[in-house]
Amino acid sequence: MGMMNGCACCDVGVLGRRGLLTGASALGAAGLFGSASAAEKPFRIDVHHHIAPPAWVAALKAAKLDSPPMNNWRPEQSLEDMDKGGVAIAMTSPTLPQVSFLGAADAARVARESNEYARKLADDHPGRFGVFAMLPMPHIDESLKELAYALDTLHADGIGMMTDYGDKWLGYPEFQPVFDELNRRKAVVYTHPTTPNCCVNLAKDVPDVAVEYGADTTRTIVNLIFSGASQRYQDISFIFSHGGGVLTAVAERLQIQMERMPPYKGKITHDQVQHELNRFFYDTAQVANAVTIEALAKLVPTSQIVFGSDFPYRTSAETAAGLAQRFKGKVLRGIGRDNAARILPAVRHV
């Protein structure tokens, strides 16, 4: 499969230039660009939507790691964005660095208080928010305890993780106890990029957000596949942010070059790599443009692409608009809602 996955209109639903113009004249700009109209009931599931629990913000401020978008966040802002973008429910998670900068006890406390805040937010606004719970990673014992509490007591919809923790990526054996438990529970694991210890300020005047976040998302995907971890964790539904980062740019290296060179030669095949790529999920945050999202739709089935806004850094309306210019019909509906609903049973009928 790989880059041979078709992107024809009948299969993938990508609108050609002529189709786009015809659709614009026939449907009008509002309908084409996917913004919520007065007659449209919000239906989208946003898997990439950030909130700022007070305990977490306080810990960030104490460590001088806070930033205005998180300091200034309020639930009303999320609801307003969701309404404008036709989002029925947002799966919430704190963004980087979550609590990885804290010692075990403080990380456990902040994660617990943050998860309880997220649960209360969801309860206070029925049907509008879901919960991707934060774990006190990289602290294993504390993470296992919080995992059980989040899923069994708070009834979180999944777990939110960083793509790395310091100098270790998600397929590393140090994290196996946590992922074994997640696999046993058939959990959803949403991941968000961060900057590993190795790669801070690599290029002068180039912020990490420009390149490194995308690279780190792909780095953890590659580590999961080529370490054999993702094959062990077949019952985890992984969601990767930003369309998998730079995945489409390096896909051929993974499919062909890696299987031809030590230490992977004879141990993994093109089809095995593609199988793993095809079962992961990829959100649309900051990639709903012709170059990236259309390349992703050629690399993996569109059934694996899920709506993500990256609020408050981007909006759901602009993401919906970008997608509506490139997909149509059942494919667009799938990306907006149905693909995520397959793995999020608690929100399937919201």
Task: Provide a compact summary of the structure.
The protein has about 350 residues and is α/β, with parallel strands linked by helices.
Write a structural description:
There is one protein chain. This protein has 350 residues and is of the alpha/beta class. The protein contains 15 helices and ten strands. Strand 5 (164-165) and strand 6 (168-169) form a beta hairpin. The protein has a single domain (41-347), classed as TIM Barrel. Mean pLDDT is 89; it is low at 1-12 and 15-39. Helix 7 runs parallel beside helix 8.
N- to C-terminal distance: 34 Å
Mean pLDDT: 89
Largest sheet: 8 strands, parallel
Count of alpha and pi helical runs = 15
Derived structural class: alpha/beta
Please estimate the helix content.
Answer: 40-55%
Beta-strand segment tally: 10
Question: Could you list the spans in which at least 5 consecutive residues all have pLDDT below 50?
Answer: 1-12, 15-39
List the helices and strands and how they pair.
Layout: H1 17-27, H2 29-33, E1 44-50, H3 54-62, H4 68-71, H5 75-84, E2 87-93, H6 104-124, E3 129-134, H7 140-153, E4 158-162, E5 164-165, E6 168-169, H8 176-184, E7 188-192, H9 212-226, H10 229-232, E8 237-240, H11 247-257, H12 270-279, E9 281-283, H13 290-299, E10 305-306, H14 316-324, H15 329-341
